[in-house]
Structure formats: C-alpha cells, structure tokens
C-alpha cells in the first residue's frame, strides 16, 4: 500500500478552494492513479479532470458519485462541498504567477500573444478563440535534445458581431 499523500490546504492554490480538493488529490496519490486513468473511469479527458481537481471545472452529481466511488471519497462529502450549490472561480493565483511552469506559460502569452492574435485575425477575421468551447491537450514529444511539451488549445472561433 502506498504512503498517504498529504496536501497542505493552507497554501496556494488550495487556500482559496474547498478542502475537498486537497482530499481528492490525496486520494488520487494513494490510489496511484493518473488524471488520464481517472478521466477514462469517469468518461472525461485528463485535462478536464485536472481542472476539476484544482477547482476550475464543475462536475455533475453523477460525475461526483463516480469519482467518489473510484477514489473511495464519500459522495456525500463531494456533493456537500462541490455539488450543485458550488461554482468554480476560474483563474487561480497571483499575476504574474509565482510557480515557474505557470510563469513560463504566462510569459509565452506575453511574448507570443500579440503575434498569435494577429495570425488568428489574419486566418479567421475579427474575433476571439473561446476558452469555454475549448479542448486542451498535453503531449510528450521525443527529441534527442530533450523531450518536448506540446500544448494544444483547440478552441472555437467566435467572430465579433456587427450591428
């Protein structure tokens, strides 16, 4: 049996979230499960599951029941803390981010955001990419100089209306 993983609920990002989120991550670690494995069990993508575990997505009562059964976390605790009456407050943490990986993603938007915006406008017209109707994928790509991280944001284009 693996050692219990303890998550400090008093530090970022958990200090702003219901305590059940730390408990979910502890249960995930104790079971030795990945976000991908949990996603397959509850019929969702690994990125959505990770977003749920960090309070950035909303699960249905049925999804919480499946999650509780899989992780052996009481469904009553899940529905009480993050059930129908709870809604995500998306966008955790300070700006700029303090975590090095999050800072590099932030830096990528600062450096490449305007060029990406120009390319989207050039290819699609005046509008935005939805982050609501968006799928995110994280892949590992082998490279002799060191493996690469491939991030894909597959978002719906939303043109600005004219009236």
Commentary on this structure:
It contains six helices and two strands, in the order H-H-H-H-H-H-E-E. It is α+β, with helices and mostly antiparallel strands. The mean pLDDT is 92.
Structural class: alpha+beta
> Beta-sheet strand percentage?
15-25%
Order of helices and strands: HHHHHHEE
Please state the overall shape, judged from the principal axes of the Cα atoms. globular
Task: Compute the number of helices.
Answer: 6
Order of strands, main sheet, comes to: 1-2
Extract low-pLDDT stretches: none
Largest sheet: 2 strands, antiparallel
Strand runs, count: 2
Average pLDDT over all residues:
92
Gyration radius, in Å: 18 Å
Could you give the distance between the termini? 63 Å
Work out the helicity level: 40-55%
Concise description?
This protein is an alpha+beta fold and 163 residues long.
Task: Using brief descriptors, characterize the structure shown.
163 residues; alpha+beta; two-stranded antiparallel ribbon; 6 helices; 2 strands; 44% helix; 17% strand
């Amino acid at each position: 049996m693996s050692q219990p993983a303890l998550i400090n609920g008093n530090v970022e990002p958990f200090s702003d979230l219901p305590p059940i989120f730390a408990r979910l991550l502890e249960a995930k670690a104790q079971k030795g499960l990945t976000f991908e494995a949990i996603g397959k069990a509850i019929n969702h993508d690994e990125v959505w599951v990770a977003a749920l575990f960090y309070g950035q997505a909303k699960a249905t009562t049925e999804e919480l029941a499946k999650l509780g059964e899989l992780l052996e976390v009481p469904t009553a605790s899940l529905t009480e803390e993050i059930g129908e009456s709870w809604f995500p407050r998306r966008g955790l943490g300070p700006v700029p981010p303090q975590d090095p990986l999050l800072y590099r993603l932030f830096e990528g938007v600062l450096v490449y955001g305007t060029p990406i915006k120009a390319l989207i406008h050039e290819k699609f017209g005046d509008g935005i990419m939805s982050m609501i109707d968006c799928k995110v994928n994280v892949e590992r790509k082998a490279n002799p100089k060191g493996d690469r991280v491939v991030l894909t944001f597959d978002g719906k284009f939303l043109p600005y209306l004219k009236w």
